[in-house]
Specification:
mainly alpha, flat, 2 domains, 68% helix, 104 residues
């Protein structure tokens, strides 16, 4: 979805562009855009440079998110997140979005 083509959303698109710079516009342009998932993916993108500087940390983080987003696993992080009044699907989607950001 191109926000700039919608007259009423053009100021929002400009504000988002300023905040995100070139590193997040692809997230906002998605047809299935979700504010919470976008925030989680941006967190992952913020973590990515740290992970790139330390291969051990990157491996640890990606292994953790891969394990915690595997529907056949225990989903311990999802379980912890849902104890804080979050639904399971949202919790899982947020973890997937952080992982996607780290891998960006």
């Amino acid at each position: 979805m191109d926000l700039s083509t919608h007259t009423s959303l053009a100021p929002l698109a400009e504000a988002v562009a300023v905040v995100l710079g070139a590193n997040g516009l692809d997230i906002v342009a998605r047809d299935d855009f979700d504010y919470e998932e976008a925030g989680a993916e941006l967190l992952g993108r913020d973590l990515a440079p740290l992970c790139r500087r330390n291969e051990r940390l990157r491996t640890l983080a990606l292994d953790l998110f891969k394990r915690e987003t595997d529907g056949r696993g225990l989903l311990l992080m999802v379980s912890q997140m849902t104890q804080m009044a979050r639904d399971e699907d949202l919790a899982l989607n947020l973890l997937v979005a952080i992982q996607r950001g780290i891998e960006f």
